[in-house]
Specification:
Blueprint lengths: L2 E5 L2 E4 L4 E8 L7 E7 L6 E6 L5 E3 L7 E6 L4 E6 L8 E8 L10 E2 L3 E6 L1
Length: 120
């Protein structure tokens, strides 16, 4: 059973920083592309960043240069370092993991989400 558990959300002032963590159990973490998404109630879930099993990263334009995604396969954990936070970053942040479309289990797994609130 694949389980993702986020932590690290909270309330921060604009310009501040937070580091979100996502601990993964089950599955084969080292083969997963891991991602971070965020969602404001009533809106579609927005992709933020992802990191491949080999460590390649990509970011949405809205967070590029401010956020960093990184992983430790030995710890089966992925983090999202968020710097220079802005009020528009306020959302519930979700961790995701997927082994690949051609894998035996290609399902996209989600964590429960963690709230990030950035005050102006």
């Amino acid at each position: 059973q694949v389980q993702l558990v986020e932590s690290g959300g909270g309330l921060v002032q604009a310009g501040g920083s937070l580091r979100l963590s996502c601990a993964v159990s089950g599955g084969i973490f080292s083969s997963y592309t891991m991602g971070w998404y965020r969602q404001i109630p009533g809106n579609e879930r927005e992709w933020v960043a992802h990191i491949t099993p080999g460590g390649g990263t990509d970011y949405s334009d809205s967070v590029k240069g401010r956020f960093t995604i990184f992983r430790d396969n030995a710890k089966t954990t992925v983090w999202l370092q968020m710097n220079d936070l802005k009020p528009d970053d306020t959302a519930v942040y979700y961790c995701s993991g997927r082994a690949g479309l051609c894998a035996l289990d290609p399902r996209l797994y989600w964590g429960q989400g963690t709230q990030v609130t950035v005050s102006s």
